[in-house]
């Protein structure tokens, strides 16, 4: 059977339903009539380029998918897409590198939309001691590196708690982007065998966020994570980049991170 591509109206309806909005809700936010929106979704009316971009903005559709919908409507893509190594991305790459470097001795890294490692600062390397070599071969997936039985998982002291946190983030990301690659990754992570719990290990609680508690050569390290993204990006690649930064959860973590950074390579 021949594959029939969805129409722009079908795409719009899918994203509206994914955002749990009624036609009236979206129409009010986009300042058009619900009747007009209904005609667009059913194919009775073809949206102008500006109208389509307005609707996609209200639906918070990822830039990559906005280009797909524009093409479905017969328009050229609106958002450029450059590799991070392209000359056009030089300033952005330099900014990312500067932020990561400035974060030392605290770990920080940049990832793409599939959690593939793009850049990392020098504080990340000491934390990877003992990780299987095949997990460090490019492209390195950060979630796989964290939860694989041959990755960091055996040294994560609150593995069940941290694993739940990461899987929730991945599920939320899929809900927001509808990227099928994320579902494949989720299935893989769920298939990993969990090591037995160490009941003797105390589980420190943070009053503000789920910590990453990692056993290192310098002792048990407790870190809080934060995510940074570029505001109002106009390039697809830049819109999909995130910087994951880790902050010491206590004074002991500061001392451990400084000692790890000072250890010979």
From TrEMBL:
Domain of life, per lineage: Bacteria
Matching Pfam families: HTH_31, MLTR_LBD
Gene3D superfamilies: 3.30.450.180, lambda repressor-like DNA-binding domains
An example molecular function term from Gene Ontology annotations: DNA binding
SMART domains (UniProt xref): HTH_XRE (SM00530)
Ranges of residues in domain HTH cro/C1-type: 12-66
Matching SUPFAM superfamilies: lambda repressor-like DNA-binding domains (SSF47413)
Name of this chain's protein: Transcriptional regulator
Naturally occurring in which organism (per UniProt): Pollutimonas subterranea
């Amino acid at each position: 059977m021949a594959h029939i591509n969805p129409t722009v109206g079908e795409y719009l309806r899918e994203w509206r339903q994914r955002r749990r909005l009624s036609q009236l809700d979206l129409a009010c936010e986009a300042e058009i009539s619900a009747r007009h929106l209904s005609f667009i979704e059913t194919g009775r009316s073809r949206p102008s380029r500006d109208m389509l971009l307005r609707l996609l903005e209200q639906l918070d559709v990822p830039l990559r998918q906005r280009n797909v919908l524009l093409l479905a409507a017969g328009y050229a893509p609106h958002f450029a897409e450059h590799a991070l190594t392209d000359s056009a991305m030089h300033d952005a790459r330099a900014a990312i590198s500067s932020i990561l470097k400035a974060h030392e001795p605290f770990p920080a890294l940049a990832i793409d939309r599939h959690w593939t490692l793009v850049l990392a600062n020098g504080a990340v390397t000491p934390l990877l001691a003992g990780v299987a070599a095949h997990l460090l071969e490019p492209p390195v997936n950060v979630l796989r590196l964290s939860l694989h039985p041959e990755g960091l998982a055996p040294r994560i002291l609150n593995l069940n708690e941290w694993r739940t946190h990461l899987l929730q983030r991945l599920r939320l990301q899929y809900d927001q982007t509808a990227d099928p690659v994320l579902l494949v990754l989720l299935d893989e992570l769920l298939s990993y065998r969990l090591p037995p719990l160490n009941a003797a290990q105390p589980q420190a609680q943070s009053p503000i966020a789920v910590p990453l508690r990692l056993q290192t050569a310098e002792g048990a390290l407790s870190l809080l994570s934060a995510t940074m993204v570029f505001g109002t990006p106009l390039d697809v690649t830049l819109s999909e980049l995130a910087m994951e930064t880790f902050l010491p959860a206590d004074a002991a973590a500061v001392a451990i991170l400084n000692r790890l950074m000072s250890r010979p390579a």
